Amino acid sequence: MPTSDTVPTSDADPVVWADDVTISFASVSGQVDALTDVSASFLPGAVHALVGPTGSGKSSFLRALAGHDRPTSGTIVVAGRVMSRMGSRGRRRVRRRHIGFVFQRPAANLFTYLDVAEHLRVAARLRGGYDPAEATELLEDLGLTSRRDHRPAQLSGGEQQRLAFAMAAIGRPPVLLADEPTAELDHEAGRRLLDSVGRLASRGACVVFATHDPAAVERADHVVALDHGRSRPEAGRVRR
Questions:
Q1: Do 36 and 230 touch, CB atoms closer than 8 A?
Q2: Which of 5, 74, 137, 186 has minimal CB crowding within 10 Å?
Q3: pLDDT tens, position by position, 35-47
């Protein structure tokens, strides 16, 4: 187990890894374990699908990897930072610079008072700088160019989800985590988003998404399966 807030890494190492992660919380009926001793590793330059039935712990695991929640026990390392040892301020700092995150509910990712272009500028500046060319490329990739001056209330649910993904991806964070990113999208919009996911991975990003979508699983390089809050052996390589 790491004894400091950072660990040495190389390009060949997993950019995200979790070791024996347990997340428990109290309920009226007693203690509930959302995750129990979950271990997994996620490589740079690859797309990973997190699969399992509803209630298997996929969203809880993603939130812990992103530093939104701190595990009850176990270790989580992201980009050489030991997230599981940090307080909320430290985890937030790592998340801003190194992690793009897409919540399952589209509106939870967005600000009602900003238009599409402003969302991308704000997200990029949190990561250190705004590149207009990159923003234009993302909007084109995701079919949002004609909506750049629109606010969230003027967008469909699918457009909101694509904007949330663009916000998570801009600035090229080394880690991109997404909870059911294609759930609100039709077939064509989902294909475009998954194409964009593949391009990000080809540039070195580690992409992890929770999904029930067979088309999304088929695009993954690796699959990690959860069942009743426990990790099953990886389902193996999906794409050669």
A1: yes
A2: 186
A3: 999 999 999 999 9
